[in-house]
Every structure is written in C-alpha cells, then in structure tokens.
Amino acid sequence: MAKTSNTNGLSTLAIHVGDEPNPATGSVADLVMSSTYVVKEKAGFSARDLGENTPFIYIRWGNPTVDGLQRKLSALEGADATICFASGMAASAAVFFSFLSAGDHLVISDVSYAGVAELARDTLPRFGIEVTPVDMSDLAAVAGAIRPNTRLIHSETPVNPLVRLTDLAAVSALAKSSGALHSCDATFASPIATRPLEHGVDLVIHALTKYIGGHGDALGGSVSGRADLIARLNVEAAIHHGGILSPFNAWLIARGASTLPLRMRVHGENGLAVAQFLENHPSVTRVIYPGLRSHPQHELARRQMKNFSGMIAFQVGGKVQGEVIAEAMMQLFEVIHYAVSLGHHRSLCFWMETDGLMQSSFRLTPKQEASYRDYAGDGIFRLSVGLEDAADLIRDLDRVL
Ligand SMILES: *Cc1c(COP(=O)(O)O)cnc(C)c1O
User: What residues does ligand 1 touch, defined as CB less than 6 Å away?
Assistant: First the structure.
C-alpha cells in the first residue's frame, strides 16, 4: 500500500518496484507464504485499527509478497495505492459493494465483462442498488442517466469484447460534476496503453489474469487509486469479504508484470500487423482495432492509448459463416489456441455470437442493441494477439479464413 514517488521510466519501475532486495538476506525473488507473523508490539483485533505503518500480523490483513505486487502496480498506474484480490471479478465486486449502498444508483457501461454485467443486472438490485446500463461512448446518454443518487459510474476501455472505447476524461468530468466516483476496468488496455487515473478516473480495475500476469497461469485482480479510497477497500472488501490474492499468485503475477512494458510493445506491433492482414482479407467483413484508421474512435484512441494493445474483434459475415470458421479454427489452427481469456503470451481466439452474448448482458434498449450490432453484427471473433512471430499468426489465420 506504500506510495511510490519514483520518477524512473515504466520499464524500470515494472522491474524494480516491489522487488527490492530483502535487507536480511539480500534475496531479490522472495515468495513469503507465511500466514502469520511474529509480532513485536501490541496489536488489536479490528481491521479498523490498521494504519499505514502497522506491521504484518495476519495474511488476510497483509503479506510482503502481495504488498510488493501492490507497490509495483501503483508505480505502473501512477496511483497512491493498490489493493489486490483473488480475481478480476473479486476486484469489481469489491468496488461495487464498498462504494454502493441500498438506495444508491450505479451507471454502468452497457457492454461490460459478462460476469460484471450479470452481477450488476441480477445481484446488485437485490441489495437495493439501482442500475442503469448506458453506452459509454454516447456522452449525452451518460449525462442523461445520472440521477441525484448516482454514486458510481463504471466504465471499461476498450470494452470486452467489442473494443469500443470510453472517453475517460469526458466521463470523469460528468462523474465529478455529479459527485459520483468513476471506476474504470482497463484490463484490455493495461497501464502501458492507458493510465486512467491521469484522465480523472478515481479507481482503475484490472483482471491481473490477463495482460499484467500475462502468461495464463494465475488468477488475480486489482484496484488502484487514492489512498483513502483504497484504505476503504482494504477494510471492507479485502479483510471482511476475504477474497484476497494468494501470495503464490502475487509472486507469479509480479514476475509477469516485470516484463509488461516489453510485452505490450510486441502485443501492439503484432496487433497492428494482424489487424492490417485481416482488414485486407476478402473473407473478413469488419475489423475493430483502435490502431486502425477505420476504428470509429481512432482519434480518441490516439489521444488516450500509448499502445493499441493486442485485442482485435473481427466479423466474417453472418452467424453461419462465423460458426463455419470457428469450426475450422478448432480443427486447423497450429499456433493460435481456440480458447477464451486474453492478454497471454500465447495468441487466443474465440467466436462470440451476438444472441448468446445478449443473454449474459443487460436488457438493452433498441438503440443500445443497434449500437452493439453496429460493432458486432451477428457475432465477432475476439482475438488476443500474443507474442509469437506475426507471420506465423497470419499464416494460421489465412489457413482458416
Ligand atoms: C477477465 C476479465 C474480468 C474478470 O477477471 P477474472 O480474473 O477472470 O475474474 C473483468 N474484466 C475484464 C475486462 C476481463 O477481461
């Protein structure tokens, strides 16, 4: 949770912050699994007694390996503080259940990660929280959805799976003028592409399972922001709801995060090469990639993204064509895995049919559904471009299209 005021570049910060040599042993790759710690001073039993300088007492309250990852992520996001959770879903749920109470209103992106959409649609109303899904790329719609009891606006950028962007500065300004917090899930961007706090966002959420861990071997989530907001999450969500990150996963994720700037460079280069190949392929009817001039928000992408990341959505015509090509991918791919998830060193591709996705999302108005279908048609392939040689990925795609 410590604040870092380091002025080094992101590649240096990613490697060194949180992985400082252990003063007792000189070791630089420590994994501490201890669930309890020998205490040298009097300590209370309430999480509310915890202060900035409280020593480690019990693992759910704090752990040196998790703490190191939290400091590394704070450095990458330019945040005061970060708190890690057992998954990206646990991080999102932590924000909703810590900053919303019965009678409050949530404005949320009408295209949100499926688990987040179902949580907001089915669970939050049971706790007396009102939820309005809006197209976050339509600022008038966001402004129109805000009510006197709106406490939180939750966006994603780019959104999973459409790769549609949210103008973070504009939505943050709307949140600020109405006294609401703005939380943003920037999993698709990573802090190398977009640092939401610099655009006025209050809380940035990541599924560490994706780009930040980057190797498909550890589940985790994080929330970064101002110290007072993270302290609240620490007591209510981490300590009392209990879904904290295991030190072993923190250790794996920190090792992945050390090479995040380097990996994102290649994800971005490969992403652009594959997106250009797809855009020129006769079987492909639409490619959505922020680095292409054809992306409807390319100008915003250039302002808000320092790297266009490796996430591509593409259409191949209607549902039948999509299903035929998905089948070909399962049979013929030699390099790319036909699998869900994203942000790994391996390339992953999955067919997402629009009717099916609508069932795991909000009940959209006809206008919202038209905007969704404008991007997705009857279905899209979500392609997470990995770190393999771009020519091999292109050959694999050419084989199935
Ligand atoms: C994967 C994902 C999540 C959920 O993360 P888990 O670690 O699987 O719980 C949340 N948001 C986005 C954008 C994701 O891609």
Answer: 87-89, 113, 115, 156, 160, 185, 187-188, 207, 209-210, 219, 221
Ordered strands of the 105-109 beta sheet: 81-85, 221-225, 203-207, 181-185, 150-156, 105-109, 130-134
Q: Give me the pLDDT at residue 357, please.
A: 86
- Give the position, in ligand 1's atom list, of the atom nearest the Cα of 220: 7
Atom of ligand 1 nearest to the CA of 187: 13
Q: Is-contact 248 104, C-beta < 8 A? A: no
What per-residue confidence (pLDDT) applies to 2?
41
pLDDT in tens, 363-378: 899 999 999 999 999 9
* Ranges of the chain whose pLDDT falls below 50: 1-4
pTM: 0.96
Q: Closest ligand 1 atom, CA of 112?
A: 13
DSSP labels, 179-240: T-EEEEE-TTTHHHH--GGGGT-SEEEEETTTTTT-SSS---EEEEE-HHHHHHHIIIIIII
Do the Cβ atoms of 60 and 238 come closer than 8 Å?
yes
- The Å distance, Cα 9 to ligand 1 centre, comes to 27
Ligand 1 midpoint to CA 205 (Å): 9
Residue 58 DSSP SS3: strand
Please, are residues 61 and 47 in contact by the beta-carbon 8 Å criterion? Answer: yes
What length is written for the chain? Answer: 401
What pLDDT is recorded for position 6? Answer: 64
